[in-house]
Amino acid sequence: MSRYNLRGFATLPGDSTSGLLAGGVSGGGVIAETDAAYAKVRTPLELANALVAANKKGTIKVIEIMNDLNLGWNEIGAEVQNLASTPFTAAAAPKLHPVLLKSGVSSMQISPKAGGLTIFSANGATIRHANWSIRNTHNIIIRNLKFDELWEWDEASNGHYDKNNWDFFTIGVGGGRVHHVWIDHCTFTKSYDGIIDTKGGASNITYSWNTYIGDDGETNPNSFVRQQVNALEASKSSYPMYNFLRTRGFSVEDIVKILQGPDKTQAIGELSKDSSNPLASVTFHHQYYLNTWDRLPRLAGGQAHNYNIYVDDTKVLAAKRLRKARYDAMSAADQLSFTKNYSFDPPINGSISTEDGALLVEKSVYVDTIWPLRNNQTDPSDPSYTGKILATDTVYVFHNEDGTTINSRGSSTDAGSKLGPFQATIKPFSWNTANGAAPYSLPASAYDDPMSLLDVIKAGAGAGRLTWDRQNWLKTAY
């Protein structure tokens, strides 16, 4: 049980810059189900009322989600939409997905002014059609929930996914600093934009034991991606990008395979060189990334610690090679048109540090990630855009097209290491603390050996994986 203790930046008290909280994250505390501050919710209205009480009065400290909830703007109902101080607003209107066109998409605000709130499910309930926005608050815990159905095909920005701005979570967006957040044992599928965006200098955040699984359309004929592709297929000529692919050699199965992975996973930082970026501090541990395209995380300024993350990009690498084969078979004119007009090519990046951010990776595994570590994505000739990044005791496996395999274990500073970074001149790693020292230390028992990490994560990570008494989800140590 102790392996599930709260670890990392969320355990620190913070400071006058990042936000004070003695003792680290505690959420709403360990309180009885019979306590007036404990709310069990089964409907969107019950959830909305509990959040109003938490946000405005601080009278609700624990919200237990008892069952799956569909929280799209058209699903929550007029009573929730018009509730005094409702936490729900309409998000960008869906454009193409047949499910979302009916359900709509909501944004749900979590912002207790005095902080201190735990939202969890004892049974791993699923949340659909909503972005959760944590803003102007602190001491928030989210545990054991699955987030699903927040993606659609992007014609509006030709595959760049820049229009709808849907993330499963946004932290520190919309006013006010956010500090001390713990997101644990959650499962995320495929979102339109990022899975989680952390901005505004949000700090003292820990993500632990989460899984990022994308879409299962390769084996599920009714997956969320397949439902979208089927709708596009019914009227191909109405959608220029989709029609281009379908008339230039891409089959329906090709498109589904390429789309299955999550795209922009986790971004930390506002716009380029924003003054709040250096304030960010985030820990990621025991994360299972399956076929992710990018950003594990992408750090702009600030500092982040990855340990015991497992990245399996086997299928997305095969999808990228499939995409290349279809591209290579096109005429030169079609290749030029594809490159100029459309974005449909997984970059397969791993962990990225930019703008003098400090990102340490320990005892982790990257399988078939083309660029496990990156240190610049803007201008490699300008060191102000370069970040510090270091991996230690990390496994890298990569299956080359010629049948050979890279299989190494070590540090990114080892001679001949394939981990990277290779984009810009390397900045020696140091923490962005007052004296350059590590911001915290972990006991040896907190780390798992990379060679056994996959089994450990599969056994314990994600929503619904653990069968616990509900009181266990309120604790931060075991």
Automatic annotation (TrEMBL):
Top-level taxonomic group: Bacteria
Record-linked SUPFAM superfamilies: Pectin lyase-like
InterPro entries: Pectin_lyas_fold, Pectin_lyase_fold/virulence, PEL
Protein name per the record: Pectate lyase
UniProt organism field: Viridibacterium curvum
